[in-house]
Amino acid sequence: MTSRLRPVQPGKTTLVAVLDIGSTKICCVIARLTPRAEGRALRSRSHQAEVIGFGYGPSAGVKSGVVTDIEKAEHAIRSVVGMAERAAGLTLESVIVNVTAGRLGSETFSAAVSLDGQEVEKADLHRVLRAVNERSVRPERSIIHALPIGYAIDGQKGIRDPKGMVGDKLGVDVAVVSSETLAMRNLELVLHRCHLQIEALIATPYASGLATLVDDEAQLGVACIDFGGATTTVSVFNDGHLVYADAIAIGGHHLTLDIARQLSVSVADAERLKTFYGSVLPGQADERDLIAIQPVGASHDEAPGQVARSVLTRIMRPRIEEILTAIRDRMQATGMMDVCCRRFVLTGGASEMTGLPEVARRTLARNVRTGRPMGIAGLPEMAKGAAFATVAGMLIYPQVCSQEYQEPRGSRKLTGTDGYFHRVGNWLKTSF
Q1: 33 burial via Cβ count (<10 Å: 0-12, 13-18, 19+)
Q2: What's the distance, Cα to Cα, between the start and end of the chain in Å?
Q3: Is 265 helix (H, G, I), strand (E, B) or coil?
């Protein structure tokens, strides 16, 4: 339960490097964070991000956020990181990386400690958070985020900062986002082969929400759905905090495979058909609009086949409804449909499909809008769409990571049986 990333200092300029490892694309961005004056919009952000290096390429060796081929993943990451390094004119040693793999999920833990009528001090906050830590740690899962979402004194909830207040009992609710340890270790292994250290891990749904939600939405309650290549993730924000995160292993690439199988065309052709002609909402002229298709294995001199545009819609719509229904059922099972306050924001590459907001409105029975990354300067034109929301959110994360619980670090011992000098002496004895 440790936030390893040091928060950016107020009033100071700093450089940050982020790496988005997705199932269909890998993107690396190096940005300069400069202090910004507090304005009405995006009040939670203390700095403005200006991109100085950008690298982008197709993904390889990664499936549904899980590393499936270390060699291929290493080559794909090296080429993208090299592109960003050349554009920025510097060499990276560590990056902030997103996590979608390992059955991403979240739980809310509560704990309380006795105050005996004393004032709440920093040590009391650490005591109650350590109590949550002991309850939430499991050997097979690693904690990515531990966000205190509300304190209570003597049963009185809704307290933001209890320091200095008096009471008998201090309680806290913490939203804990975790993932399977082995999936994250494989990710770490690939980056070590690329000579990169992981500066911090951030859950993909959290990053997407940070980039696309405005302050009022996050305060009132909202759910953000990120339609990725092979995974769809959802995050719920309430009272300005992340309170829930989840992921399902179905995404935009599954629509492409559905089209390829049903129309018997190549995956590349199916992707082109989905991008140019795909819609999940039937139109009046769809039966008359004919699309030329080239069947798999057909020679170039053969005449291409033709299908009506409505056929494409009938293939794509059931898959989209399946994704939205799965998210709705999961959120209803955890009570999050009431927390999100009748509002959804759609983002991610697959969210740009024609008619998706209308279908989502009908399936979820909620208000729906499409979200794009906000407040990031210097991004190339191609990276300003919803497909790059996660990358933008990772640039915002260093500005808000101070909200997370951080394990207090012990003072470093220099002498003694496990001190620094003793370890150096042992190394000298064993090495020479």
Answers
A1: buried
A2: 39
A3: strand
Measure the CA dihedral 332/333/338/343, to 10°: -40
Per-residue model confidence as pLDDT tens digits over 114-123: 988 888 888 8
d(C-alpha 323, C-alpha 423), whole Å: 54
Residue 312's CB: how many other CB atoms inside 10 A? 24
Residue with the bigger pLDDT between 174 and 135: it is 174
Tell me how far apart the alpha carbons of residues 355 and 365 are, in angstroms, rounded to a whole number.
15
Sign of the Cα torsion 55, 59, 60, 66 reads positive
Question: What's the gap between Cα 315 and its chain centre?
Answer: 29
Q: Which residues of 114-130 are buried (b: 16+ CB within 10 A; e: fewer)?
A: ebeeeebeeebbbebbe
The answer to whether 182 touches 141, Cβ cutoff 8 Å, is: no
Identity at 252, one-letter amino acid code: G
- 107 - beta bridge partners? 176
The bridge status of strand 305-308 relative to strand 290-293 is antiparallel
Query: Could you read off the pLDDT of 312-348 as tens digits, one per residue?
Result: 999 999 999 999 999 999 999 999 999 998 899 999 9
**Sequence letter at residue 329:** D
> How many other CB atoms are there within 10 angstroms of residue 136's CB atom?
18
Which distant-in-sequence residues (6+ apart) come within 8 Å of 291 by Cβ? Answer: 273, 277, 306, 307, 308, 309, 312
Residue 140 to residue 182: CA distance in whole angstroms: 8
Residues with Cβ within 8 Å of residue 299, at least 6 apart in sequence: none
The answer to whether 51 and 379 are in contact (CB under 8 A) is yes
Q: What is the dihedral of CA 43, 44, 50, 53, to 10 degrees?
A: -160
Contact 29, 391 (CB under 8 A): yes
Structure-block tokens of residue 114 = 């006795």
- 349/209 Cα distance (integer angstroms): 14
Pairing of strands 169-180, 66-67: unpaired
- The sheet with strand 105-114 has its strands ordered as 105-114, 169-180, 141-153, 156-159
Helix or strand run (H / E) with residue 267: helix 267-277
Pairing of strands 169-180, 141-153: antiparallel
* Sign, CA torsion 133/136/139/144: negative
pTM for the predicted model, two decimal places: 0.89
